[in-house]
Amino acid sequence: MNIKERLHRILATIPEGVKLVAVSKFHPAEAIEEAYNAGQRIFGESRPQEMAAKAKVLPKDIEWVMIGHLQTNKVKMVAPFVSLVASVDSDRLIDEIEKQAAKNERTIDILLEVHIADEETKSGWSLSELEEYLNTGALERMEHIRVRGVMTIATNTDDEVVIRRDFKHIQTIFEELKPRFGEAFDTLSIGMSDDYPIALEYGSTMVRIGTAIFGHRIYN
Ligand SMILES: *Cc1c(COP(=O)(O)O)cnc(C)c1O
C-alpha cells in the first residue's frame, strides 16, 4: 500500500468530526506532499527546525501541529505559522508562546499535555502541577493563547487494560477541566497508530497517526 491508500483506509475508520493529525516527523517533504495530494491538510512534527524547514517548501494551507517537546528558545522558529502546539507542558513554555504569538500578532492554539503514562520519561504536567498552575489564574491573562484542550500519550504497552485505564483517566480530566474554559476547549487528543481505535471509544477528537500512514521512521 502507498501513503494515499493507507491514509484513506485510516480515514474510513475515523468518525466524522474527529481530526486526523498525520504525524510526518522524520519523513521527507515528498511523503507529506503525497498525503497532501490525497487530501490531508493537518500534519504533526516533533522538532521545530524540521517543521520550519518543511513549512517553507510545502503548501501554505497546511496546518502544522507541534507534537513534540518544545524548548522555550525554539518557540520563535514556529510561532509565525504553527497552527497548534499540542505538547504544552510548562508555565515557562506558555509564557514564551504568549510572547512570540503577540510579536507575530496572532493567537496560537494550544493543548495542555498531561502525564498519565506509567513511564517516568514521558513529558507533560502531572495533574497536581497542572491544577496548581491553573489556580494561579495566569492562563486567563494570556491574550494570544487559546487553550483548546488536553493531550496525552498512553503507556507504551500491549496491555489493553492499561491503555484503557490511561484513556479513561484523561477523558475524565478533559471533562473536569471543560467548565474552566470556554467553548473553544473542545479537543481531546489521544490515539496513535497502535491504539487509536481504543482512543476513539474514549472520546478522542484528534488522533495523531504516523507509522500507520507513512511507514516506519528512519532516525538519523
Ligand atoms: C510520534 C508521535 C505520534 C505518532 O506515533 P505513531 O505510533 O507513529 O502513530 C503521536 N503522538 C506523538 C506525541 C508522537 O511523538
Walk me through what this model shows:
The radius of gyration is 17 Å and the shape is globular. The chain has one domain: TIM Barrel (Alpha-Beta Barrel), CATH 3.20.20. It has an eight-stranded parallel beta sheet with strand order 7-6-5-4-3-2-1-8. The longest helix is centred in the last third of the chain and has 18 residues, at 160-177. The protein has 220 residues and is an alpha/beta fold. Helices cover 37% and strands 17% of the residues. It contains nine helices and eight strands. 37% of the residues are buried. It starts with a helix and ends in a 6-residue tail after the last helix. Pyridoxal-5'-phosphate binds next to β8 and α9. Pyridoxal-5'-phosphate binds at residues 23, 25, 46, 67-68, 153, 192-194, 208-212.
Count of helical segments? Answer: 9
Under CATH, the topology can be stated as TIM Barrel
What overall geometry do the principal axes of the alpha carbons give?
globular
SS-based class: alpha/beta
**Total number of beta strands:** 8
The major sheet is characterized as: 8 strands, parallel
The SSE order reads HEHEHEHEHEHEHEHEH
Strand order of the largest sheet: 7-6-5-4-3-2-1-8
